[in-house]
Amino acid sequence: MSAYFLRRLWQMVPTMAGVVLLVFLLFNWVGGDPAYILAGKMSDAQAIANIRAQLGVDQPYPVQLWKFVQQILTFDFGNSWATGEPVSQIITSRLGPSLTVLIPLTILETGIGIALALALAFVRGSRIDRAVMVACTVGMSVSILVYIIAFQYGLAYKLGWFPVQGWGDSLGQNLLHYAPLPILIGLCVSIAPTLRLFRSFVLDEAGQDYVRTARAKGLSERRIVWVHVLRNAAIPIITHVMANLPALLIGAFLLERFFGIPGIGREVILAVERSDFPVIKAITVYVAAATMLFNLLADVLYQAVDPRVQLT
Hints:
Blueprint: H1 2-30, H2 34-39, H3 45-55, H4 61-74, H5 87-122, H6 127-141, H7 144-158, H8 171-178, H9 180-206, H10 209-216, H11 221-251, H12 253-259, H13 264-274, H14 277-305
Helix pairs in contact: 1-14, 5-9, 5-11, 5-14, 6-9, 7-9, 9-11, 11-14, 12-13, 13-14
């Protein structure tokens, strides 16, 4: 196991190097000169030159690239151009609110999706199965903005069951008071595509030869589905969940924006609006690293779910 981990970590190095080089090229060649953005429209050539010297963008590209690598290795991307706050502090302070919403959302989405997919496997092809799939198609056709507006107006403003928006300093207060409505909306948006996908995974396994053999041996349908089918369908389910986890941090920006949640997604949008390159570069690199680490975690979970999987 340790040899496998070391080999996978070593394989991440060239991938991460490619990501770093791509981010550097995009922000230094395609993104334009940040000195003009920070100086404003009424600045003179001397002011722009001073800003370029302060940022270090007046130096040769190899020197700038090496500084960028040093920032990644030391987890120090300097200060935000917009607020002057250290980028590392921005990320660490914004990560908690995002995880407060996304961790319960992921657990609920995965658990409910698996339970409903297995339940539909018992009644596959029936009217209930077809009705649920039609409902999922309709649900996927509705924009998340519609869910946000409808739920905020109906459940929060009219009925007063939830706060319309806001965020506190206590984890318990946020989790029990402010986060439930964003979690509920995220669940309504994500459960339809998740259920359709998980159902396809389960039905693919339900049609395999080993399932027919188990039925021929007299095993109950419940045992076949919950033990044999679920274990084999868990591999693509784990792949789906792990691949989506890093993207969820950025993809939840609408929930964070509408509900005033000071999370990573909201911070990315603000950074793009302000052309705050240090924040954008840091989050881009960290999301890329998180994606590779979650892929490694998925491989470990494969073997935990199915001992036949060999980590080589």
